[in-house]
UniProtKB/TrEMBL annotation:
Organism: Neptunomonas phycophila
PANTHER family, alphabetized: N-ACETYLMURAMATE_N-ACETYLGLUCOSAMINE KINASE (PTHR33540:SF1), TRNA THREONYLCARBAMOYLADENOSINE BIOSYNTHESIS PROTEIN TSAE (PTHR33540)
SUPFAM superfamilies: Protein kinase-like (PK-like)
Keywords, comma-separated and alphabetical: ATP-binding, Nucleotide-binding
A Pfam family hit: APH
A single GO molecular function term of this UniProt record: ATP binding
Protein name: Phosphotransferase
């Protein structure tokens, strides 16, 4: 038994002894999963009830933001797990259990319209929550995220060094993407609103998890996370239809000004997608190289396909998009295919 798990069990024992939790003796802890962070999750069962235990080492993870966002959103009617007890010094939390049914596992060609409609309604509710006190998704953060692409995907994974011309080409594109992000309405942003962070609950409801990195930022960010999901892809025409439907709902509910056209909103969405997926290429590479989580490499081709698609859509209007698309297809994709994990990938 690891030291952290032993400490977690001792913490639960102390909660039971002090009668601070809604269960008594006879409880059992079983692993649930980890995620892309340093957090680990366990299920605590006692007779016919269960809860979730979170192990978030305080030197690696900030549980304060998780608890603050959880309580604010729950008070606003957002379906997030109730925080029953927390020990910030040790990095332990006891949460309501939302079960094991991820939206990801329920998606199919037949179910996706209904499930995404529910998810977009939940997203609109989040965007109505006040964002006072949340960190700003500002220019330095947007640029810092995209720099992960240069460092981890290009440099560490593909072992390439950007020349001065390539660096300027990327900088020019990044400037376009940052400008597009900053001209959008600012709302509350979950920041990882996708099919593995949405839970299917009873009576068709959706539960929302992994929200501790919430920020105040662009209106299309979470929509991109959902509709251009790094773990599942849908036909481009279908995605465009969902984006248009969301724009109309957002305008009806007062989140988006009525003057924003379909074309303008789609451009915001697509450029936000480029920013997010460029970042994710770096993050998934880092998860493999630094953290030993090689499974994320399987999703890199899908993410790169999103980038290529987004660049191509605007290649005639934006020279910056055309230049990077050409470079990726002519230089980077061939470099990827030299690696065994990507040798059979079609892009």
């Amino acid at each position: 038994m690891g030291q952290r798990l032993l400490q977690l069990e001792q913490w639960v024992t102390s909660l039971v002894a002090s009668k601070k939790v809604p269960f008594g003796k006879g409880w059992v802890i079983t692993p649930v999963s980890g995620d892309a962070s340093f957090r680990r999750y366990f299920r605590l069962t006692n007779e016919d009830r269960s809860w979730i235990l979170v192990d978030a080492p305080p030197e690696k993870e900030d549980s304060t933001s998780f608890v603050e966002v959880a309580r604010t959103w729950l008070d606003s009617g957002i379906p997030v797990p109730e925080v029953i007890h927390v020990d910030f010094s040790q990095g332990f939390m006891l949460l309501e259990d939302f079960g094991d049914s991820l939206l990801f596992g329920e998606l199919s060609a037949q179910s996706v319209d209904g499930l995404y409609t529910a998810a977009m309604d939940a997203l609109l509710a989040i965007q109505h929550v006040g964002n006072d006190g949340l960190p700003q998704y500002d220019e330095p953060l947007l640029r810092r995220e995209m720099s992960l692409f240069n460092e981890w995907f290009i440099g560490q994974l593909l072992k390439r060094q950007l020349c001065e011309k390539e660096q300027k080409m990327l900088d020019d594109l990044f400037a376009v993407l940052v400008s597009s992000a900053l001209e959008q309405p600012v709302v509350t942003v979950h920041r990882d609103f996708h099919s593995r962070n949405l839970m299917c609950l009873a009576e068709g409801r959706l539960g929302i998890i992994d929200f501790q990195d919430a920020v105040a930022g662009p209106i299309t960010y979470d929509l991109v996370s959902l509709l251009k999901d790094c773990y599942v892809a849908w036909p481009s025409e279908q995605v465009v239809g969902w984006v248009s439907a969301y724009r109309i709902k957002a305008q009806q509910r007062g989140v988006l000004d009525n003057s924003v056209t379909d074309a303008a909103f789609l451009r915001w969405f697509d450029f936000m997608g480029l920013q997010r997926h460029i970042k994710v290429l770096g993050i998934f590479s880092r998860l493999d190289i630094r953290d030993g989580k090689a499974a994320y490499l399987e999703d890199i081709p899908r993410v790169l396909s999103y980038v290529l698609e987004g660049l191509h859509r605007y290649s005639e209007q934006y020279a910056e998009c055309a230049a990077v698309e050409r470079w990726l297809r002519e230089q980077i994709v061939p470099s990827m295919k030299k690696l065994d994990c990507f040798k059979d990938v079609q892009l």
